[in-house]
Amino acid sequence: MFPGLLGLMLLLQAPWAWAGDEERKLEAVFIGRFASYIEWPAKPRDRFVITLLDDNPFGSLLDDLYRDKRIHNKPIELRYATRLEQVGETDALFITLASSAARAAAIDHAQRNGILTISEAKGFAESGGIIQLDFVEQKARIKINHAAALKSGLRIGAPLLTIATVLRGDKP
Amino acid sequence: MFDRISIRYKLIVLLGLSAALALLISSAITIYSTYLSESRASLRVLHQLTDVISENMRAALAFGDAGSANTMLASLRADPHVLLAVVNDESGRPLAEYRAARLSGALVSRLQAGVQARILGSADALGRVDGFVEHIDNDLMGVLRPVFFEGAPIGVLAVVSDTGVMWARIRELVLLQVVTSVLTLVLLLFLSVKLQSLFTRPIMKLVGAMQDVARTKNYRADLKADRRDEFGTLYAGFHAMLADIRERDERLSLLATTDALTGLANRRHAMETLQTMLARAQRKGEPLGIIMLDIDAFKAVNDRYGHPVGDRVIQDVARVLQANARDYDLVARLGGEEFLVVCDGGTPEATAAMAERIRAGVEAREVRDTAEASFHVTVSLGVHSAVPQSAQDDIEKMIRAADKALYRAKEAGRNRYVVG
Chain A contact for B63, CB < 8 A? Predict the structure, then answer.
């Protein structure tokens, strides 16, 4: 009984485990769209790199979606990492790590390297992540930690801030 | 009807009608032009509104944020003319909607259906980045604009507004135009009343002058006008026409009173003048001398030298008569070779002396037949002088007396005068 309850709790902490296909598709689309509203410090890369850290809940969805597409006029490269050490130079980092400590480490790494962090994990924005995305009744809710973005050297466009719940400092 | 109205009022009516027609046409053109420009301006405002909203709406559409989309559309309530605004997402489903509070449910349904039908029917126009659909009629106008994200359409924004602002401006303009037109018309009519005299005064002056001439028969009226326009030409033409009439009258008068061969008074004029002279002599109690004169053997002259020479003889005798008569005497050719001289105030002695001068003058005058040959003629004269007592009886009596004296002069051997 107890392991079952623990499993249920783990499932609740990892929303992608129960998110519907439609929401997942939207989530995949939104990753690219977020990037359109964000300015990175100039980097000498000829590709726009999106990295998934830990599990890949999208299957081949991201590959299908971003094949032959461009962000900021650069071709998109998708990378999949299971450990933080595997994350090399990247522009956006979609974090599916279940452990808050691991997420904190990833956030810290991203802030130091000017990387946009996105996650569905509850409390992600409050804990220093830049964009927290989740769905309520099939409607997207976006939470942005503006201070974290500035700390990472990223500038978020006003239209995105307009539709998001924005945390300034540590409070929404 | 129109031909009974004075030219003055015709001018006023014509000027007024012309001005009214011109104002009507210009007003119609102005109002139609304003309708076009105002409808374009209203649509342009609606385009600007949809441009701004669609730009802000992009993020809401990109992330399917219906709440933010509704909040953005709700700001349209600041414009009371916006009736309906709808944002469809990329699948064509309405993401957000604004409707004016004053709209009835039926009208909302009609507008919604109309918007969705137009979106469906305009897929081509709404599939381009710069594409749009616009519509305007008497009551409504609307603009549909696609929202693009990263080069792909992610939704459509439609804004429908009433045309109240446009019609309010057009109503203002029509009112202004009507007031301006009425004022302009009144001013033009006032000016036309004042200015018509520029045209009518010379015409009326000419008409008055013509009526005066017709009434007084005074063809010496001076109608010269110091003008260089058509009125000047008209005046000059009328003046020339009067001069022609004068000249013709004088010529006719001359033809009616003078003898064509000699230039002396003819019989009719002589009798009229004699009547006047006799009346004056009678009034003053002065004598009047009458000389009847006939060229001797004139038939023989004609037979011998021909009629042209005979005519010259008559002309020569006439010159002798004119040379011996005073300005106030009457010298006339009564016909053929017979002449009459009336001496105003002529006593028997003075008249007889004049008759003798005439006789001697004619006798002495050489009538030239050819360059080498010439001849002389003589005249016989009957002289009578009396103070007339009554006008009509005395004319006949005096002429008859002079005529008898002439007969006696002929009987006595010609080339002499006899006092009767």
Answer: yes
- For an interface test with A, the pick among B57, B63, B68, B149 (most A C-beta atoms closer than 10 Å) comes out as B63
Could you tell me which residues are beta bridge partners of residue A133?
Answer: A142
Which tens digits make up the pLDDT trace of A110-137?
A: 999 999 999 999 999 999 999 999 888 7
Is B59 touching A (CB cutoff 8 A)? yes
pLDDT above 70 (res B182): yes
H-only helix segments in A37-157: 61-66, 100-113, 146-151
For A69, nearest residue in chain B (alpha carbons): B150
Nearest to B419 by CA among B346, B337, B319, B334: B346
Q: Where are the beta strands (DSSP E) in B273-373?
A: 288-295, 330-335, 338-344, 367-368
Return the domain boundaries, chain A. Answer: 2-167
Verify whether the Cβ–Cβ distance B150 to A140 is below 8 Å.
no
* B150 shares contact with chain A (CB less than 8 Å): yes
* Interface contact B56-A159, CB threshold 8 A: yes
Question: Which positions 71-130 of B are in contact with A (Cβ < 8 Å)?
Answer: none
DSSP assignment letter at A82: S
What is the DSSP-derived secondary structure letter of residue A40?
P
Question: Minimal Cα distance from A162: which residue of B?
Answer: B68
Domains and CATH numbers, chain B: 2-167 (3.30.450.20), 217-256 (no CATH), 267-419 (3.30.70.270)
Residue range B23-33: average pLDDT? 91
Interval A96-109 mean pLDDT? 95
- pLDDT value for A1: 37
pLDDT in tens, B359-388: 999 999 998 877 677 899 999 999 999 998
The helix (run of H) or strand (run of E) holding residue A118 is strand A116-119
DSSP annotation of B127 reads G
CB pairs under 8 A between A and B: 36
Tell whether the model's pLDDT for residue A23 goes beyond 90. Answer: no
Q: Domain A2-167 class?
A: alpha beta
Which positions ≥6 away from B135 have C-beta within 8 Å? B118, B141, B142
Chain B's closest residue to A161, CA to CA, is: B59
pLDDT averaged over every residue in chain B = 90
Average pLDDT of the residues in B108-130? 92
Residues in chain A within 8 Å Cβ distance of B55: 159
